[in-house]
Specification:
By secondary structure, this protein is mostly beta strands. Helix content is 0%, strand content 53%. The chain is built from no helices and eleven strands. The strands form two sheets. Strands 2, 4, 5, 6, 9, 10 and 11 form a seven-stranded mixed sheet that branches. A four-stranded antiparallel sheet has the order 1-3-8-7, with no helix packed on it.
Length: 116
């Protein structure tokens, strides 16, 4: 079965950096686009970044362009989110996502808190 396990979240000061990782299993990872979403308290889940199966194409939410970078390692079945210049507004639970056979799969999420 499809499994997504996020890691790498934590508490960081404004301006700091974090690298999130998502380990995927149960499907042919290299054949699927992967996405990172986030959900802040009281807000809807929003798409942060997406990457094509081979990694050659990426897309970002306007709010993170120039600060976040999505990447993947198909040999390791992992997708990453490098987050730089973090702001308090980036505080949220971050989720890895894949859509397979029209079904959305999600990990358990990893908490990112940006605060002094």
């Amino acid at each position: 079965q499809v499994q997504l396990v996020e890691s790498g979240g934590g508490l960081v000061q404004p301006g700091g950096s974090l690298r999130l990782s998502c380990a995927a299993s149960g499907f042919t990872f290299s054949s699927y686009p992967m996405k990172w979403y986030r959900q802040a308290p009281g807000k809807e889940r929003e798409l942060v970044a997406a990457i094509s199966p081979a990694g050659g194409s990426t897309n970002y939410a306007d709010s993170v362009k120039g600060r976040f970078t999505i990447s993947r390692d198909n040999a390791k079945n992992r997708v990453y989110l490098q987050m730089n210049s973090l702001k308090p507004d980036d505080t949220a639970v971050y989720y890895c996502n894949v859509v397979r056979m029209r079904i959305d799969y999600w990990g358990q999420g990893t908490q990112v808190t940006v605060s002094l």
